[in-house]
Specification:
By secondary structure, the chain is an all-alpha fold. It contains 16 helices and two strands. Strand 1 and strand 2 form a beta hairpin. It is globular.
């Protein structure tokens, strides 16, 4: 499959996971379809860009790398993307976020209770997708092992969200604390995407572990690069306001680094302790981050995890073309602008 065909196949597998809805509950599933870009705010048909679909792409490539048929991994790929979107629905509620991918969030359109319920439904639909693995030709014992690891991954993501919420407003957070949090909240799903894809493809234990490690480090690099974009990204490219993370007083890696190293760290802490951040405040924060070399430091951390990902990939054995494509995918993610 080429890139376009892959994206179409992933979304088709996601659609296939949803049950046929009776008329009285059709609106419930339409709310979930809105999150996925298949419906507009009036719940009419839409075709909104679903984003990178990074995790399901990792799954299919890892399956190929292990010598398997990527079509058999489509239910897993779809389930991983659905779990990602489930987490985003609940994330938006917990973060009080009004927009996602340039559109109003589910809870903002239909209320808090319906937002929670829509997220809960997508959690279940993701599992229904994985239950289609056996029908796709995956041996029952492999499908069961994949489902077990899938649930372990979701619990890890929830742990990461717990830590993220616990750290809000805590200016004492260390870099180690932060990296542990994103390793659970963000990187765990990328690790599962690559590692479970390899298992479906029939990888031996060593190659499966190599791909788990590849995904974990790639996920860390991806999030740390996001931290750069959240402050210094071009709004015309990212679709987010300039310095969005500073206005939100987000404790991302550049800010944590500056809190520990900047000569004006006390000023940074004072500004971050305010209820609101003004344009003038953001200008001061940017100066403090620049003085601390926070951008270069954070980009260096992203590069480190990117190199760790590639090192893990080199220990994997399998289809050389697919492994090369995984390497190329990793290269595109570091230094990206959106």
């Amino acid at each position: 499959m080429n890139h376009s065909e892959t994206r179409i196949s992933i979304q088709a597998a996601m659609r296939a996971a949803f049950p046929a809805a009776e008329a009285r509950v059709e609106r419930y599933y339409a709310m979930q379809h809105y999150q996925l870009g298949w419906r507009d705010a009036q719940l009419g048909p839409a075709d909104v860009d679903p984003g990178k679909l990074l995790r399901p792409q990792l799954t299919l490539l890892a399956c190929r790398a292990a010598g398997g048929d990527p079509h058999q991994a489509l239910p897993l790929a779809a389930g991983l993307q659905l779990i990602h979107d489930f987490s985003l629905i609940h994330d938006d509620i917990e973060d009080n976020s009004d927009t996602r991918r340039g559109r109003p969030t589910v809870w903002k359109l239909w209320g808090l209770a319906q937002g929670i319920n829509a997220g809960d439904g997508m959690f279940v639909v993701a599992h229904l997708s994985l239950h289609r693995l056996s029908a796709a030709g995956v041996p029952a014992e492999v499908a069961l092992e994949v489902l077990r690891r899938f649930d372990q991954t979701i619990l890890t993501i929830c742990e990461g969200q717990f830590l993220d919420l616990s750290f809000e407003g805590d200016l004492r957070i260390s870099e180690a604390d932060y990296l542990d949090m994103i390793s659970r909240k963000t990187a765990a799903l990328a690790a599962a995407a690559a590692g479970l894809g390899a298992i479906v493809g029939g990888a031996d234990a060593a190659t499966a572990q190599a791909l788990f490690d590849f995904g974990q480090n790639l996920g860390l690099a991806f999030q740390v690069q996001d931290d750069v974009l959240g402050i210094w990204g071009d709004p015309a490219v990212t679709g987010k306001p300039a310095a969005a993370d500073l206005y939100r007083r987000k404790l991302s890696l550049p800010v944590i680094h500056a809190l520990r190293t900047a000569a004006q760290s006390d000023t940074l802490a004072q500004l971050y302790s305010q209820d609101e951040i003004s344009d003038n405040d953001v200008a001061r924060l940017l100066d403090i981050l620049a003085e601390a070399g926070a951008r270069g430091y954070t980009e260096g951390v992203a590069t480190f995890y990117h190199q760790q990902a590639l090192a893990a990939l080199k220990t994997a054995h399998g289809d050389t073309t697919a492994l090369a494509e995984l390497s190329a995918l990793a290269e595109r993610l570091v230094g990206r602008q959106n």
